[in-house]
Amino acid sequence: MAVSQSVYPIRCLYCGGARASAMAPCAVCGASSPCDPRPVGGDERLACPRCRTELAVVGLGAAGTARVFRCAGCLGCFTPVDAWSEILGRMSAGERSPLGGFVPLPPGKELPAAVLLSNVACPRCRGGTDRVSFGVRSQVTADICARHGIWFDAVEIVRAAQFVRKREDNRGVVPMSKEQWSEEREHTLATEARRAAVAIADARDQREANRRRHDAHDADCDTGDAAAWLWEK
Hints:
Blueprint: E1 10-11, E2 18-19, E3 56-59, E4 67-70, E5 77-80, H1 81-92, H2 113-116, E6 130-133, E7 141-145, E8 149-152, H3 156-169, H4 178-232
Helix pairs in contact: 1-3
């Protein structure tokens, strides 16, 4: 038997922004793929796309609410649309984060980089996922099934939710750390330098084209003058 559908507004799987409905685009990033907010049925068995073991059901701290599905081995978790919407909805309402039990792996227990970089299938439909930088600036890489939910590797769900909360607290602006500010500044300077180099090259090419046209014009004039002189003779 399925858990009753979440009463919280639907949240975007790609950035955590608000969606007016499962068919409406995200108000923040514009993602428009239809999603399925129906909760996972009680008879559905979901497997970890990393470890291939069955995922355990994790409640969000209130009877009858949405559920997240976590791997006991790698601590990654699959977060369906309804659960993601409830997590962000409760945090937005000022409630304590329901993700207190989501902790990182002990040192030395992390999955190999090759495994973490491998493609992830949606635990629900077994289809492919989009690997994205969640919300662009969150520094969280998530594997998203646009219809069913998000696969987060260990503790990334906490970081993604905190990112959305900070953005909402700052009216849509995400505060940057000094490191992020420096990286963005370097990117901006590099972009400006590339644009300046292109502008200089364009100006140089234009001058060269003008010179060639001028030389060709002078050559035509010289030829015309010579022809006129011979005609007069």
